[in-house]
Amino acid sequence: MKEISAPAPEQKEKAKHGEQMFPLQQYITELSDSYPAVTAHWHEEAEFTLIEEGSCVYQAHLQSYPVQPGDLIFLPPMTLHAISSIPGTGMRSETYVFHMNFLGINSADVCAVRYLTPLAKQKLIPPFVIRKDHPAYGEVLSLFHAISQAYETAAPGYELMLKSLFLQLIAVLLPYCTESSSLPQLHTEHAAKLKLVLDYIEHHYAEDLTIEQLAGICYFSEYYFMRFFKKYVGMSCLSYIKNLRLEKAAEQFEQGESSTLSVSLAVGFHNLSYFHREFKKKYGMTPKKFMEDLTVD
Where in this chain does the record put each HTH araC/xylS-type domain (predicted)? Predict the structure, then answer.
């Protein structure tokens, strides 16, 4: 199967993970000083990850989890999450992103009603990080390796094998799930507010956004909002908007747009020299060189 590098996900991610009949996709994520983070986002799919090399910090439901090689991460659908590298270190991970439809969540049976639906609706909260000292670690790691092998080999019937393995994964984790009511209420409320803000930025990033405007969505003061945003996203709100605009610009170049001025204006940069400078700082090359490299590839 084709290996895909992690996209630059933003907010409510719209990337298509796999195909409608087989909604499962493998991603390889590599963080470094030049690509230090996967910004806060969420999607309708669950994801299952193995940290292969290096270390980083996962943030899930606004809580931080430092992870090391060998650690496993399981995130149910709609979980707000982000990844940030530790300066001077890198990280490589292998992830499987899959829709719960693949496991039969729409079936009117006991498995869907009692287990899959509560997990998808965040009524049941699994352990987000499974480390070597976790009682289920050995089983979960074996399942990950079996999933990876089945996906890579793609032998006849591998889709059935993968479906079976992901159902086994959920069965193994179920005894360690907690009720959603046990989560800190403040974290739940803050996660909901942060999702609203990120979703608004996603739809209005090309406009002149102000801190006052975004703070109003949460009913926070500007001072509290700025601290709140940086605490949970890992960067200031203005830096986040700039980063998103640059990623949107790169997407437009990848889609064939060739006018730097048009792209910069379309994503919200009104100063061309500033756009050039920030684009080069993020991608290590000018927009022109970025487009040239796309042509070569």
Answer: 195-293
